[in-house]
């Protein structure tokens, strides 16, 4: 009899995700992805003042802490035709890119690395050899034998006391771990350093947005005024600190994140042919250099790549009702239009329809609803969104830096271009795009300083702040590239209040369940065909799911009650 493997919850992600894998011997024949928590921010927003929406929407998630704020103010600005000042655009770009750098480094070391790095094996490392390895890879300052000996001692104490703490519950010793002990020790050391590093780099958000997580936003611009020589608002000392933060980001990315990615990947080249997914890639695009809703000015272009064909980029219209639609045939929602209905977000409905099974249960009934995520589709097709989609879009549209980075990675690893479409490609894309955005950050920073020096201090456009200036009915789309991919908020405003609000977020695209036609979502498609060395320790599932960097709070716009904390693996 075919067995169904259940992994619930998947750990080292945001939120609660359950994967069920229909096994054929040791191979995954079919996989099912289920978001298991629910709240309902879209419903909470109805009837509120559109100018307040960002503050509620931002609470969708505490990981991608600012993206829902940005998407929300952009949606309102699009609906009311508000253009924001140049300085506000630059500051938003800086804040968005800072989020990427922070989020991607944390994801690599704290959420994904331990799928590839065996912490316990690091105890066998020779600190001197580790220092030699680290020094051969980069000029990261902490690369001495004494430093690695200290990290090893710290780790040894954890293990001997049975208190692995943040390293508890790994599949240490699993046969799929391939790194030599020295590479494991180096990666563990950088894991710990990244924890410290991220504490500093969030200052950029605090300076521009008042705090982190959840920095403040403002419809029409940014909330903190620029006042170069005063104590209130953003002064020159604050801006100097922003520059120091960017340098700190550059140093860690160049000296640790990029070399570590390449070094670790070189032991896992086989993962360049595993975890391909749906092969369709969507970007909404971001980083305007002109008006915020003029996609032609975006540094990351908008578009779709189909069937891995990088020679053609298809156009995407976010307002066209036949393009982006959400289906709920395998989700715990219902539409007034009945089964098979796909709704554009302007017409979106969020009505719960939980059809069970009630917990505790052994397995989901995948013929019915089985997730709190909807199934978004573009022209009926499942789309992968995120770092890989963006890198492919930059590559396909001829971005020179992207091409240089991708070509360098392929030749360093000695893998074919097809290796991009994989678990390894997804993880490498995250690292490579971080390099590109850091370069852009430096440019935006310089532009901002030049504007200020030229006397342009404007950060807010208040022309349409007063609701009496608004039309009775308006609708708009706010979109961006969040760290995990294309994010859109759609708002309908009637009589100065929110009549409908829908968010379609990256993890919904990637982790959503099957649609009306039974077509699998990207997670589900990517897992198909995985061979598990040991089904009781499904490390291979974690590798591919983590390569997408799941965030289920975003995906269902929810915060759930705390479920079980331990990971449960069941073969039934
Ligand atoms: Ni909660 Fe998010 C990002 C958004 S993912 S992390 O990035 O939007 O669905
Ligand atoms: Mg939604």
UniProtKB/TrEMBL annotation:
<keyword id="KW-0560">Oxidoreductase</keyword>
<dbReference type="InterPro" id="IPR018194">
    <property type="entry name" value="Ni-dep_hyd_lsu_Ni_BS"/>
</dbReference>
<dbReference type="InterPro" id="IPR050867">
    <property type="entry name" value="NiFe/NiFeSe_hydrgnase_LSU"/>
</dbReference>
<keyword id="KW-0479">Metal-binding</keyword>
<comment type="subunit">
    <text>Heterodimer of a large and a small subunit.</text>
</comment>
<comment type="function">
    <text>This enzyme recycles the H(2) produced by nitrogenase to increase the production of ATP and to protect nitrogenase against inhibition or damage by O(2) under carbon- or phosphate-limited conditions.</text>
</comment>
<comment type="similarity">
    <text>Belongs to the [NiFe]/[NiFeSe] hydrogenase large subunit family.</text>
</comment>
<protein>
    <recommendedName>
        <fullName>Uptake hydrogenase large subunit</fullName>
    </recommendedName>
</protein>
<keyword id="KW-0533">Nickel</keyword>
<dbReference type="Pfam" id="PF00374">
    <property type="entry name" value="NiFeSe_Hases"/>
</dbReference>
<dbReference type="InterPro" id="IPR001501">
    <property type="entry name" value="Ni-dep_hyd_lsu"/>
</dbReference>
<dbReference type="InterPro" id="IPR029014">
    <property type="entry name" value="NiFe-Hase_large"/>
</dbReference>
């Amino acid at each position: 009899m075919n067995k169904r493997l259940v992994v619930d919850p998947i750990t080292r992600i945001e939120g609660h995700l359950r994967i069920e894998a229909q096994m054929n011997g040791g191979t995954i024949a079919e996989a099912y992805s289920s978001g298991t928590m629910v709240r309902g921010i879209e419903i909470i927003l109805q009837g509120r003042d559109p100018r307040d929406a960002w503050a509620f929407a931002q609470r969708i998630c505490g990981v991608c802490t600012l993206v829902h704020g940005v998407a929300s103010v952009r949606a309102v600005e699009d609906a009311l035709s508000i253009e924001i000042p140049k300085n506000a655009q630059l500051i938003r770009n800086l804040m968005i890119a800072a989020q990427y750098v922070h989020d991607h480094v944390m994801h690599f070391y704290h959420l994904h690395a331990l799928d590839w790095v065996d912490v316990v094996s690091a105890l066998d490392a020779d600190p001197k050899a580790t220092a030699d390895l680290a020094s051969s890879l980069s000029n990261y300052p902490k690369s001495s034998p004494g430093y690695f000996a200290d990290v090893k001692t710290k780790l040894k104490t954890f293990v001997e006391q049975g208190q692995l703490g943040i390293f508890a519950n790994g599949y240490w010793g699993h046969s799929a771990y391939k790194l030599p002990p020295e590479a494991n020790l180096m990666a563990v050391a950088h894991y710990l350093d990244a924890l410290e590093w991220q504490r500093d780099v969030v200052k950029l958000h605090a300076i521009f947005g008042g705090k982190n997580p959840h920095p403040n936003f403002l419809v029409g611009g940014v909330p903190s005024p620029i006042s170069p020589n005063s104590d209130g608002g953003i002064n020159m000392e604050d801006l100097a600190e922003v520059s120091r933060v960017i340098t700190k980001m550059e140093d860690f990315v160049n000296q640790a994140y990029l070399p570590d990615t390449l070094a670790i990947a070189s032991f896992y080249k086989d993962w360049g042919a595993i975890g391909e997914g749906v092969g369709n890639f969507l970007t909404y695009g971001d980083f305007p250099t002109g008006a915020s809703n003029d996609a032609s000015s975006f540094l990351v272009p908008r578009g779709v790549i189909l069937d891995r064909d990088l020679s053609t980029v298809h156009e995407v219209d976010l307002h066209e009702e036949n393009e982006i639609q959400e289906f709920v045939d395998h989700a715990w929602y219902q539409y007034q239009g009945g089964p098979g209905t796909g709704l554009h977000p302007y017409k979106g409905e969020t009505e719960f329809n939980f059809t069970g099974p009630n917990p505790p249960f052994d397995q989901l009934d995948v013929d019915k609803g089985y997730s709190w995520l909807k199934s978004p589709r573009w022209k009926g097709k499942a789309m992968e969104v995120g770092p890989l989609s963006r890198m492919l879009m930059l590559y396909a549209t001829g971005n020179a830096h992207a091409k240089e980075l991708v070509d360098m990675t392929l030749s360093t690893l000695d893998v074919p271009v097809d290796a991009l479409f994989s678990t390894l490609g997804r993880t490498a894309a995250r690292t490579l795009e971080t390099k590109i955005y850091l370069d852009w950050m430096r440019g935006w920073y310089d532009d901002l300083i030049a504007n200020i020096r030229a006397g342009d201090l404007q950060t807010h456009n208040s022309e349409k702040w007063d609701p009496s200036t608004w039309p009775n009915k308006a609708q708009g789309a706010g979109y961006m590239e969040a760290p995990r991919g294309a994010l859109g908020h759609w708002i309908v405003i009637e009589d100065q209040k929110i009549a409908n609000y829908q968010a379609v977020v990256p993890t919904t695209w990637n982790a959503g369940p099957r649609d009306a036609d039974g077509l699998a979502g990207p997670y589900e498609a990517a897992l198909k065909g995985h061979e598990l060395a040991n089904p009781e320790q499904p490390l291979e599932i974690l590798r591919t799911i983590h390569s997408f960097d799941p965030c289920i709070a975003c995906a269902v716009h929810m915060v759930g009650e705390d479920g079980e904390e331990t990971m449960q693996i069941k073969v039934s």
